[in-house]
Amino acid sequence: MPFQHSSRAPEERVGTALVDAHCHLGDGAFDADRGAALARARAAGVGHIVVIGTTAQDSARAHTLARGTAGCSATAGVHPHEASAWSEETERRVRALLVEPEVVAVGETGLDYHYYHSPRDIQRWAFEAQLALAAELRKPAVVHAREADDDVAALVRAWGHKVPAIVLHSFAGSRTVFDAGMSVGAYFSFSGMITFKNWNPAVRPSDCPTDRLLVETDAPYLAPVPHRGHRNEPAFVREVAAALAGALRLELDALGQRTTENACRVFGPRLAHSLPEISAT
Questions:
Q1: pTM for the structure as a whole
Q2: Which residue, 120, 123, 247, 263, has most beta carbons within 10 Å?
Q3: CA 90 to CA 88: how far, in whole Å?
Protein backbone atom coordinates (compact mmCIF):
# COMPACT_ATOMS: atom_id res chain seq x y z
CA MET A 1 0.00 0.00 0.00
CA PRO A 2 1.43 3.45 -0.83
CA PHE A 3 2.40 5.71 2.02
CA GLN A 4 -0.35 8.10 3.12
CA HIS A 5 -0.58 10.65 5.89
CA SER A 6 -3.06 9.99 8.66
CA SER A 7 -4.56 13.08 10.27
CA ARG A 8 -5.61 11.31 13.46
CA ALA A 9 -4.38 13.27 16.49
CA PRO A 10 -3.21 11.49 19.65
CA GLU A 11 -5.69 11.85 22.50
CA GLU A 12 -3.16 11.75 25.37
CA ARG A 13 -0.32 14.23 25.79
CA VAL A 14 3.03 13.56 27.35
CA GLY A 15 4.66 16.34 29.41
CA THR A 16 8.31 15.46 28.77
CA ALA A 17 9.46 15.91 25.18
CA LEU A 18 9.93 12.53 23.51
CA VAL A 19 12.97 11.45 21.51
CA ASP A 20 12.45 9.46 18.32
CA ALA A 21 15.64 7.42 18.59
CA HIS A 22 15.57 6.05 15.02
CA CYS A 23 13.97 7.80 12.04
CA HIS A 24 14.86 7.73 8.34
CA LEU A 25 13.85 11.36 7.88
CA GLY A 26 16.11 11.70 4.83
CA ASP A 27 14.15 9.02 2.98
CA GLY A 28 12.44 10.03 -0.24
CA ALA A 29 9.08 9.25 1.36
CA PHE A 30 9.43 12.61 3.16
CA ASP A 31 10.56 14.71 0.20
CA ALA A 32 7.10 16.17 -0.42
CA ASP A 33 6.32 17.21 3.17
CA ARG A 34 9.39 16.90 5.39
CA GLY A 35 8.82 20.30 6.96
CA ALA A 36 5.18 19.52 7.67
CA ALA A 37 6.14 16.15 9.19
CA LEU A 38 8.58 17.94 11.50
CA ALA A 39 5.88 20.42 12.50
CA ARG A 40 3.49 17.56 13.29
CA ALA A 41 6.20 15.92 15.38
CA ARG A 42 6.74 19.09 17.39
CA ALA A 43 2.99 19.45 17.88
CA ALA A 44 2.88 15.84 19.16
CA GLY A 45 5.54 16.57 21.77
CA VAL A 46 8.59 15.14 19.99
CA GLY A 47 11.59 17.15 21.14
CA HIS A 48 14.38 15.44 19.22
CA ILE A 49 14.77 13.10 16.24
CA VAL A 50 17.80 10.93 15.52
CA VAL A 51 18.06 10.83 11.71
CA ILE A 52 19.57 7.53 10.57
CA GLY A 53 22.17 6.98 7.87
CA THR A 54 22.19 3.74 5.86
CA THR A 55 24.82 4.45 3.18
CA ALA A 56 27.63 6.98 2.90
CA GLN A 57 25.40 9.20 0.75
CA ASP A 58 22.38 8.75 2.99
CA SER A 59 24.52 9.49 6.05
CA ALA A 60 25.69 12.74 4.45
CA ARG A 61 22.04 13.64 3.83
CA ALA A 62 21.20 12.84 7.48
CA HIS A 63 24.07 15.08 8.59
CA THR A 64 22.84 17.93 6.39
CA LEU A 65 19.34 17.60 7.87
CA ALA A 66 20.68 17.56 11.42
CA ARG A 67 22.95 20.54 10.80
CA GLY A 68 20.11 22.59 9.35
CA THR A 69 17.18 21.48 11.52
CA ALA A 70 16.66 22.28 15.17
CA GLY A 71 15.94 19.24 17.29
CA CYS A 72 17.66 16.73 15.00
CA SER A 73 20.86 14.72 15.21
CA ALA A 74 22.28 12.20 12.76
CA THR A 75 24.05 8.87 12.55
CA ALA A 76 26.54 7.71 9.93
CA GLY A 77 27.00 4.15 8.78
CA VAL A 78 26.14 1.42 6.31
CA HIS A 79 23.06 -0.81 6.68
CA PRO A 80 23.61 -4.57 6.27
CA HIS A 81 21.59 -4.49 3.03
CA GLU A 82 24.29 -2.14 1.66
CA ALA A 83 27.27 -3.96 3.18
CA SER A 84 28.66 -4.88 -0.25
CA ALA A 85 29.36 -1.17 -0.72
CA TRP A 86 31.71 -1.10 2.29
CA SER A 87 35.21 -0.15 1.12
CA GLU A 88 38.15 2.00 2.12
CA GLU A 89 36.49 4.97 0.42
CA THR A 90 33.16 4.31 2.16
CA GLU A 91 34.92 4.03 5.50
CA ARG A 92 36.72 7.30 4.84
CA ARG A 93 33.44 9.08 4.10
CA VAL A 94 31.69 7.62 7.14
CA ARG A 95 34.66 8.41 9.38
CA ALA A 96 34.67 12.03 8.21
CA LEU A 97 30.99 12.38 9.13
CA LEU A 98 31.43 10.77 12.52
CA VAL A 99 33.67 13.59 13.73
CA GLU A 100 30.97 16.18 13.00
CA PRO A 101 29.18 17.46 16.12
CA GLU A 102 25.74 16.68 14.70
CA VAL A 103 26.57 12.98 14.21
CA VAL A 104 25.94 11.15 17.46
CA ALA A 105 26.30 7.45 16.57
CA VAL A 106 27.61 4.85 14.15
CA GLY A 107 24.98 3.05 12.12
CA GLU A 108 22.64 1.81 11.14
CA THR A 109 24.84 -1.26 11.00
CA GLY A 110 24.27 -4.92 11.88
CA LEU A 111 23.16 -8.12 10.17
CA ASP A 112 20.07 -9.06 8.15
CA TYR A 113 19.82 -12.64 6.92
CA HIS A 114 16.15 -12.34 5.91
CA TYR A 115 17.17 -10.83 2.59
CA TYR A 116 20.30 -11.53 0.59
CA HIS A 117 21.08 -7.99 -0.53
CA SER A 118 24.66 -8.52 0.66
CA PRO A 119 26.41 -11.85 1.36
CA ARG A 120 26.56 -12.86 5.00
CA ASP A 121 30.34 -12.82 5.24
CA ILE A 122 30.43 -9.31 3.77
CA GLN A 123 27.74 -8.19 6.24
CA ARG A 124 29.78 -9.51 9.15
CA TRP A 125 32.93 -7.82 7.84
CA ALA A 126 31.21 -4.44 7.41
CA PHE A 127 29.46 -4.74 10.79
CA GLU A 128 32.67 -5.46 12.63
CA ALA A 129 34.49 -2.66 10.80
CA GLN A 130 31.82 -0.22 11.96
CA LEU A 131 31.97 -1.50 15.53
CA ALA A 132 35.72 -0.86 15.38
CA LEU A 133 35.00 2.71 14.22
CA ALA A 134 32.58 3.17 17.11
CA ALA A 135 35.22 1.97 19.56
CA GLU A 136 37.92 4.18 18.07
CA LEU A 137 35.82 7.34 17.82
CA ARG A 138 33.90 6.76 21.07
CA LYS A 139 30.46 6.74 19.50
CA PRO A 140 27.53 4.44 20.31
CA ALA A 141 26.59 1.89 17.65
CA VAL A 142 23.01 1.49 16.35
CA VAL A 143 22.50 -2.19 15.55
CA HIS A 144 20.02 -3.84 13.17
CA ALA A 145 19.31 -7.54 13.72
CA ARG A 146 17.00 -9.67 11.60
CA GLU A 147 17.14 -13.47 11.46
CA ALA A 148 20.83 -13.32 12.38
CA ASP A 149 20.55 -13.67 16.14
CA ASP A 150 23.56 -15.88 16.82
CA ASP A 151 25.99 -13.81 14.76
CA VAL A 152 24.65 -10.49 16.05
CA ALA A 153 24.91 -11.76 19.62
CA ALA A 154 28.49 -12.92 19.09
CA LEU A 155 29.61 -9.55 17.73
CA VAL A 156 27.68 -7.62 20.38
CA ARG A 157 29.45 -9.66 23.07
CA ALA A 158 32.84 -9.19 21.38
CA TRP A 159 32.55 -5.42 20.96
CA GLY A 160 29.95 -4.28 23.47
CA HIS A 161 32.47 -3.41 26.17
CA LYS A 162 34.73 -1.63 23.68
CA VAL A 163 32.15 0.87 22.38
CA PRO A 164 30.43 3.51 24.52
CA ALA A 165 27.02 1.88 24.00
CA ILE A 166 25.09 -0.55 21.83
CA VAL A 167 21.55 0.37 20.74
CA LEU A 168 19.50 -2.63 19.64
CA HIS A 169 17.24 -0.85 17.19
CA SER A 170 13.62 -1.99 16.72
CA PHE A 171 14.21 -4.71 19.28
CA ALA A 172 12.13 -7.74 18.27
CA GLY A 173 12.31 -9.71 21.50
CA SER A 174 14.95 -12.30 20.64
CA ARG A 175 16.21 -14.10 23.77
CA THR A 176 19.64 -14.65 22.19
CA VAL A 177 20.11 -10.98 21.30
CA PHE A 178 18.62 -9.87 24.62
CA ASP A 179 21.06 -11.96 26.63
CA ALA A 180 23.99 -10.62 24.64
CA GLY A 181 22.71 -7.06 25.05
CA MET A 182 22.25 -7.49 28.79
CA SER A 183 25.81 -8.75 29.11
CA VAL A 184 27.19 -5.48 27.70
CA GLY A 185 24.66 -2.97 29.02
CA ALA A 186 22.93 -2.42 25.66
CA TYR A 187 19.89 -0.22 25.11
CA PHE A 188 16.65 -1.75 23.82
CA SER A 189 14.79 0.49 21.36
CA PHE A 190 11.13 -0.33 20.75
CA SER A 191 9.32 0.55 17.51
CA GLY A 192 5.75 0.36 16.23
CA MET A 193 5.97 -3.44 16.31
CA ILE A 194 5.06 -3.24 19.98
CA THR A 195 1.55 -2.13 18.93
CA PHE A 196 0.93 -5.03 16.51
CA LYS A 197 -1.65 -7.60 17.60
CA ASN A 198 0.53 -10.49 16.42
CA TRP A 199 3.64 -9.28 18.29
CA ASN A 200 4.50 -12.07 20.73
CA PRO A 201 8.21 -11.84 21.58
CA ALA A 202 10.22 -14.24 23.70
CA VAL A 203 11.45 -11.24 25.72
CA ARG A 204 8.85 -8.76 26.95
CA PRO A 205 9.51 -5.05 27.52
CA SER A 206 9.11 -5.68 31.24
CA ASP A 207 12.21 -7.89 31.07
CA CYS A 208 14.34 -4.92 29.99
CA PRO A 209 15.89 -2.55 32.53
CA THR A 210 13.96 0.72 32.46
CA ASP A 211 17.20 2.73 32.32
CA ARG A 212 17.99 1.13 28.94
CA LEU A 213 14.66 1.64 27.14
CA LEU A 214 14.27 3.83 24.06
CA VAL A 215 11.36 4.54 21.70
CA GLU A 216 11.59 4.99 17.95
CA THR A 217 9.49 5.05 14.79
CA ASP A 218 11.86 3.64 12.15
CA ALA A 219 9.82 5.96 9.91
CA PRO A 220 8.76 5.74 7.15
CA TYR A 221 8.51 2.03 8.02
CA LEU A 222 6.65 0.08 10.74
CA ALA A 223 3.82 2.55 11.35
CA PRO A 224 2.20 1.77 14.71
CA VAL A 225 -1.46 1.04 15.30
CA PRO A 226 -3.69 2.96 14.52
CA HIS A 227 -1.63 4.21 11.56
CA ARG A 228 -0.79 0.86 9.94
CA GLY A 229 -1.09 1.09 6.17
CA HIS A 230 -0.03 4.72 6.24
CA ARG A 231 3.45 6.19 6.06
CA ASN A 232 5.08 6.25 9.46
CA GLU A 233 6.43 9.58 10.71
CA PRO A 234 8.16 10.90 13.84
CA ALA A 235 4.95 12.21 15.42
CA PHE A 236 3.81 8.61 15.77
CA VAL A 237 6.53 7.83 18.30
CA ARG A 238 3.87 8.88 20.82
CA GLU A 239 1.87 5.75 20.00
CA VAL A 240 4.99 3.65 20.56
CA ALA A 241 5.61 5.36 23.88
CA ALA A 242 2.00 4.88 24.93
CA ALA A 243 2.15 1.16 24.09
CA LEU A 244 5.42 0.73 25.96
CA ALA A 245 4.00 2.61 28.95
CA GLY A 246 0.99 0.31 28.92
CA ALA A 247 3.19 -2.79 28.79
CA LEU A 248 5.14 -1.53 31.79
CA ARG A 249 2.07 -0.21 33.65
CA LEU A 250 3.53 3.26 33.77
CA GLU A 251 1.99 6.64 33.12
CA LEU A 252 2.88 7.95 29.67
CA ASP A 253 4.64 10.98 31.12
CA ALA A 254 6.81 8.81 33.38
CA LEU A 255 7.73 6.54 30.47
CA GLY A 256 8.46 9.57 28.29
CA GLN A 257 10.74 11.09 30.87
CA ARG A 258 12.62 7.84 31.37
CA THR A 259 13.16 7.11 27.65
CA THR A 260 14.19 10.70 26.97
CA GLU A 261 16.71 10.60 29.82
CA ASN A 262 18.04 7.34 28.39
CA ALA A 263 18.34 8.82 24.89
CA CYS A 264 20.28 11.79 26.26
CA ARG A 265 22.60 9.44 28.10
CA VAL A 266 23.34 7.20 25.13
CA PHE A 267 23.52 9.83 22.37
CA GLY A 268 25.18 12.54 24.41
CA PRO A 269 24.87 16.19 25.38
CA ARG A 270 23.65 17.39 21.98
CA LEU A 271 20.25 15.87 22.79
CA ALA A 272 20.23 17.12 26.37
CA HIS A 273 21.00 20.67 25.21
CA SER A 274 17.96 20.61 22.91
CA LEU A 275 15.77 19.51 25.82
CA PRO A 276 16.42 21.99 28.66
CA GLU A 277 14.36 20.09 31.20
CA ILE A 278 16.43 16.90 30.70
CA SER A 279 20.02 16.41 31.80
CA ALA A 280 22.35 13.69 30.53
CA THR A 281 23.10 11.40 33.46
A1: 0.93
A2: 263
A3: 6
